[in-house]
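So, can you check these tokens?
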Amino acid sequence: MTDLSTPPLPGHLPDKRQVAASFSRAAATYDSVAELQRAVGNALVARLPHGLQPRTWVDLGSGTGYFSRTLAAAWPGAYGVAVDIAEGMLQHARPLGGAQAYVAGDAEHLPLQAESLDLLFSSLAVQWCSDFAAVLAEGQRCLRPGGVMAFASLCVGTLRELRESWQAVDGMVHVNRFRHFEDYQRLCDGSGLDVLGLEQLPHVLYYPDVRGLTHELKALGAHNLNPGRPGGLTGRARMTGLLQAYEQFRQPRGLPATYQVVYAVLRKPLEGGN
């Protein structure tokens, strides 16, 4: 198992510049196919502690701003900041409103002042960060005592059906890699933040055919970005092999695509104790 308390070996996760460019290109199409993102983000909102009244919140990996607008509606008097690594997403989100500020920034090096936040919210963004310990350290730095960091991410087992189908075809890297859930547990436990909740839950989407899934991943900007991915167009023979291999997973509702979702709610201890 890779030790993610230090940056993983080169080639473990996608280059963040490619991630930013991919999501920038997807800004106009993202919302039309974001069923998973909506469901996961809403589930994360539902996990926020009761009675939370943030004066300042950040939507980290804010994308098109859907959950920035959700947070703004929940706490209309709070000051909201949307942070994303993809400039194209920020440009798309800004005219739609929700946050008071839109900032281009990296979760591992947040352009925010220490102890300036009461809530750091991040849904389906931090899986792209290679140094997750740094993400947690930035959360610990930027939160005020008693502040909450809530994130949803993806772990090993995500898109298992697609990965196994491609393995049957050519054995190359066609599906994005993710951390083990145990890495999230270990890093959260060692973050200096109190773990209020940490769990892994599967979320399954169904498609009439494989092309429906792959087209959706591209529209989201979440298609294969890993080092070692095959270059060029996928040949007809390989695509036919993929379609045949994926059919073994077909269920009455269609072809399943399983996402293993990590939900976490952490809190910065109060000064002098919990």
In short: The longest strand covers residues 194-207.
